[in-house]
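Hey, quick one: can you model this chain's 3D structure?
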Amino acid sequence: MMSRPQKYIEGEALHSQHAKSNNALKLRVAVLVVCVLLVSALVVTYLLFELLKTRENLRNLELKQKTIKADVTERLPEIKPCSTVQPTCPEPEVKIITQPCNIIQPTTPQPTEITTITQSYTMIPTTTPQPSEITTNDPCYECEDGWKQHGENCYFFSTRKSSWDASRTVCRTQGGDLVKIDSSEEQSFLRIAIQQKIESYDDLFWIGLTDSAVEGRWLWVDGSPLNESLTFWFFHDEPNDLTEEDPDGQDCAKMGPMYWFAISCKVTHRSICEKPAVALCV
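Sure thing. Here's the predicted structure for all 282 residues.
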């Protein structure tokens, strides 16, 4: 039989062993809890990042949707059935008459076939537009290679980017100037042409409009004042001459696939040059 002191010593050793085991278990549990908390924090952070990214994508999609919707709404009035717009459906006789003006001389005797066609042409109602109004490319005018014809003018859409002043210098060396927009029809022509040439939404073009001489007095490059009833600014309060990007303000105009924007003349953009087409008819 063991003595009493020896049993007491063995009890203390056993109690100490259990205490150490409990401490080790508590340490493992604490480490496990910390790991779980760290993993949870990482998951929450990732989810928040994905949420912000999704919201940004939604905003971009909504902006694109509004832009496309506005473009479609603006172009709807231009889309009409061919049967309801007779002038846009020229008859074969009209196509024959649209030869260069100096081919058929009024004083020259005409063969029977031409006389018949001429008689048929005179029967067309007086409300029918002339060929120059039907087509963009008037056969009596011609443009150089690389220039796009519209009516009696030629337009060049640059691929290189430069400031407003530098772009105007390039246009003038080619015998023209930065484009002056005189009508809604010309604005529509340029808008459609730009939509075919841009590579991104921020691919914009300088036009010949500035108020650099007198703030608030917008003039075209030929010195004529801007017709306030014929403007296509994007924002209702534009131009507003903000100075955040340039202390000199926003003194030049650029054009996108739909609207105009006022911006610093020092920014680099592509440009649209305009000059008269070469007359072929006498």
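One thing worth noting: Strands lie at 141-142, 148-150, 153-157, 177-178, 205-210, 219-220, 252-255, 260-263, 270-276, 278-279.
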